[in-house]
């Protein structure tokens, strides 16, 4: 009989879903993977589009309900396992800043990142969701300079989201390798949970490439 408390993570290696899997590991959460070979285009097939019409990962199923959007998934999972200590409680003064920086990821960082990657001119500063790229990144640099984590001395689920994101965006040259970003990413990627998932992702990605003859 299927355990209703187990989480199903719709997953592809070396994607944004990696951060969600790392978070699940950090939380000690019971989960199963529903693996999609994105090299073979499985995320665009009808079976998965019926689950997430945008054809994106991560997505999770839990208690019969679907949660998409990396920001929503991060908040949901951390709240689901408060005993892991990765989320400030509702009456914690850090709850507001915690939500701020998680929302900042989806509302400001990702739109700026895509414009930068696509070499698109951003909207005028008064209409842009992220002002401009340097301002958006400067706010993060200022916050992280207080370190070692986004909320100071306390590691939260927000750091898993951001640490993994900084790791791959610096790897691809979209975010500059400033010392504060490098040190921050290393704090997260040196953790056992990230190391385990990174190794598993390498193996899975190689299998996916082999399956499509890449």
Automatic annotation (TrEMBL):
It comes from the Bacteria. GO terms for molecular function: transferase activity. The lineage of its organism: Bacteria, Pseudomonadati, Pseudomonadota, Alphaproteobacteria, Hyphomicrobiales. Keywords: Transferase. It holds the Pfam family GST_N. PROSITE patterns: GST_NTER. Gene3D superfamilies: 1.20.1050.10, Glutaredoxin (3.40.30.10). Residues 4-85 form the GST N-terminal domain. This is Glutathione S-transferase.
